[in-house]
Design goal:
Radius of gyration: 20 Å
Number of helices: 3
Structural class: alpha+beta
Shape: globular
Low-confidence stretches: 20-25
Order of helices and strands: HHEEHEEE
Strand content: 15-25%
Number of strands: 5
Strand order of the largest sheet: 1-2-3-4-5
Helix content: 40-55%
Largest sheet: 5 strands, mixed
């Protein structure tokens, strides 16, 4: 019993289209989350001078985004590198808290938080770790 090659090709093509559609559907929420993160960070940066107790962290953050479902990137400004480990951790935790406020409750938590300055990873935290690992940047 031989199947028509055209029908097999049609089924395979349809299957591929469905898989691509599902991949795009999964990426769309990340785009929405990243867009919302950019807006909220911008708001926090505008509040930083008038309410530094709550929003001062935002002065040191250039951008926050999900690279993928498992990784958050916190892009910091150069002045961040001169701070103490404690201050770096506090600022990074506040930036991470912003990501938690934007994502829906049914989203999985990321496995990795990378803190970058000038495209170099200067800090790293995995869910299995209690503290950030900071690289000396001079």
């Amino acid at each position: 019993m031989h199947k028509n090659p055209f029908i097999i090709l049609l089924i395979l093509s349809f299957s591929l289209i469905l898989n691509i559609g599902n991949a795009n559907a999964k990426q769309q929420p990340l785009r929405n989350i990243n867009h919302q993160l950019a807006e909220d960070l911008g708001d926090h940066q505008s509040y930083a001078d008038s309410d530094p107790g709550n929003y001062d962290y935002a002065k040191y953050i250039q951008r926050i985004y999900y690279l993928d479902r498992k990784t958050i990137i916190i892009q910091v400004k150069p002045g961040f590198q001169k701070m103490t480990k404690s201050d770096k951790t506090s600022i990074s935790n506040q930036a991470f808290a912003l990501t938690r406020s934007v994502q829906s409750n049914d989203c999985n938590h990321p496995e990795t938080i990378k803190v970058k300055c000038n495209k170099k990873v200067i800090g790293l935290k995995k869910t299995t770790q209690k503290n950030y690992q900071w690289k000396y940047t001079g």
